[in-house]
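Our preliminary data section would be incomplete without showing what the modeling component actually yields. Below, a chain of 269 amino acids is followed by its predicted structure, encoded as tokens that our downstream tools consume directly.
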Amino acid sequence: MYGGAAVAITLFPVASPAAVAWLRCLGAAIVLVAWRRPGRASWRGREFWLAATFGLVTAGMNVVFYEAIARLPLGTTVALEFAGPVAVAAIGSRSKRDVFAVALVAAGVVAIADVRLSGSGLGVLFALLAAALWAGYIVLGKQVALGGNGIDSLAVGFAVATVALSPLAFGAAAVWASPRLLGLGVGVGVLSTVVPYALDQVVLRRLGQSTFAVLLALLPVTAGVTGFVLLAQVPSLPEALGTLAVVAGLVLRSRDERTKPTGLPIEPP
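Predicted structure:
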């Protein structure tokens, strides 16, 4: 996931972040459609519109995520966008543990945003928009898991999103002239979309939601380590503490999820 994001960042000097996100969408669509070959039923009716909406929301989430990491460290962006899934997890529950967990996450977000507002307020805005779209991804992802065609719906959704967002391709003019750069752009789609989103469907059939959420809490740490190792991005003390607060809030909230059903994909962008 974040290895793909690190590769995407290296393309930003020659293509806009939105264009790189579109290349990611294109790569994912090509690989998923070739792999799954969705039948005619997947391209019409309710299943098609559900998959198309899901694909557009997910692609939009990827676009604003890339706009954020073009302005903020990778680990910081991932920590900020975690406000989305935790907010969704807290809806419908009134326990004191939930309230404390959400407050902890909010404190982490404030700590991270406070550091970055003076440097890149727009980056923080993009990261929080990614969080909102991530929440939409969770809600739609549940419907795809329960009433769609799983990975086939992913293929249809990304194909639709690739066509709908095709004007973004104009921001990648230099990439089209270089087979190596084009290969990197499509490769980002495989690393950051095909592999993790397909595994999402497999893992959620075998693990309870609480266990999955605990493992999910490792993602901001993974993003921070990736940013440090591959991009030499060293977090400041407030950013590190804010990231830990977000992770702690998600782990705390997940402990109340033991009795809830699985089938809710919440993989980040």
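Residues 203 and 212 are 8 Å apart (CA to CA). The radius of gyration is 18 Å. Preliminary results of this kind motivate Aim 1 of the renewal.
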